[in-house]
Specification:
The protein is mostly helical. It has one domain. It has 5 helices and no strands. Helix 3 packs antiparallel against helix 4 and helix 3 packs across helix 5. It is globular, with a radius of gyration of 15 Å.
Amino acid sequence: MNTPYTPNISHILGALSIYDLEGAVGKELWKYDPNDEKDREIIIISFILKDLMYLSYRHRFVLMSALRDALDKPDFDFSKKFESDYDEYITMAWDEIEIADPRGFFVDIYRLASEVWKDDLQKASVEDQSTW
C-alpha cells in the first residue's frame, strides 16, 4: 500500500487479456464486436470498468487522468495497447488490427468511466492530491 502508483493506460485493458483463459473469458468477450457501439459499451462497462473496481477511487482517478493526458496527444498510438505480448503472457481478445478505431475505443472508455465512476472521480478531484 505504500508503493507509489504509476499509472499505465495499458492496465485499463487488463480485462481483455485472455492468456490461458481463451475457453472462459475469451469465449465471453468474443460474443461482442468491439467495433459495434452497443457491444463496445457492454465490453467497457461489464468487463473493463468492472475489472478495475479493485483499484481505490484515487487510483482510478490517477489512471483516468493519465488516459485524459494520452487522449490530449493527437499522435498517441492507441493501437499499440491492443498488441499481444507473448513474452509477457499477454494475449488480447482482439488485436490491434481488429479494432477499427483504437483511439475511439479509449475515448469511449474515458466517457463511460466518467459516467460510471462520477462520484468517486469527483471525490478524488477535490482532495489534496499531494497528501496521497
